[in-house]
Amino acid sequence: MHEKTWWWPVATESELATEPLAVQLFDESLVLWRDGAGQAVLMTDRCPHRGAKLSLGSVQGGQLQCAYHGWRFDGTGQCASIPALPGFVPPATHKACRHELREAHGLLWANMGGAQFDPPALAGLPTRRLIYGPFDVATSAPRAVENFLDTAHFAYVHRGWLGEAGHPEVPHYDVTHTADGRPVIEQYKTWQPRATASAAEGGWVTYRYEVLSPYSALLSKRADAGGPEDSYVIWACPTSEESCRLWFAQYTSDETSSDDTLRDFQVEIFSQDQPILESQQPRRLPVNGGEVMCAADRLSAAYRRYLQKAGIAYGVC
Length: 317
Ligand code: FES
Ligand SMILES: [Fe+2]
Hints:
Layout: E1 8-12, E2 21-25, E3 28-34, E4 40-44, E5 58-60, E6 63-65, E7 72-73, E8 79-81, E9 98-104, E10 107-111, E11 128-137, H1 141-148, H2 154-157, E12 176-177, E13 183-192, E14 203-213, E15 216-223, E16 229-240, E17 243-252, H3 259-279, H4 298-309
Antiparallel strand pairs: 1-10, 2-3, 3-4, 4-9, 5-6, 6-7, 7-8, 9-10, 11-17, 12-13, 13-14, 14-15, 15-16, 16-17
FE2/S2 (inorganic) cluster is lined by residues 47, 49-50, 52, 66, 68-69, 71.
């Protein structure tokens, strides 16, 4: 599967304490835990002994102990001890299936074999970072990302916040591409009643959009009248072809609004999107036709072409 050549976020760093955390990627049940050195470890959530879920177990002395017969596994996946056989040294065949894991941007990224690309790079963003989520959504990851790139819904779904009924028009914008073929809009102007948590009144706002990877994208926005610079990233984990887990990372130069105020704003915006997203049929993103496009959808069209060129077949139809 071509998607396996990428890294995918499976949890934020702060979601993972020491105890095992069950996550899912590409329909596969996985378990995250931290070994004695505090290193995050990712394994298939299945004990090699009798197939019990390792996430039901616990971390003991820096090792993951299965809840069924107490076998313990170290951070490499090797079985270190079998309580039913004291003194027995488990051979190399007694091993849980471990996967590659990396930390980037406050999230833990999994690779399920043969990584060809690094997690997306972020540069030049404001330094204050907040991560919201996880949000579990009953639609495919590419449907969620396409919605993040869509501006024509602001006047309807986010009326009074990111758009208003009197201004549904989408002004002309140009889609360009990065050297590696990711779609970008350098400048998109829109009038917003309440563009940010700290906005007291409406005004013109300039957006910049960039697709970062098949299931992630960045938008940066700033009110033309000044005020904080805000960038948002959508990180989507494809839990299955028709479901995803999302996080939104905000990078902001707003040093005065509280974490709660900023979070409440983004949570409110996404609560407006979620019912629409979960109503869309099919849940997989149709990249081969089957939905009608208009000129306001240029970025969505470019995103779909990008997925096709990248060979993405998961979560699309
Ligand atoms: S099933 Fe895990 S120890 Fe037996
Ligand atoms: Fe939206």
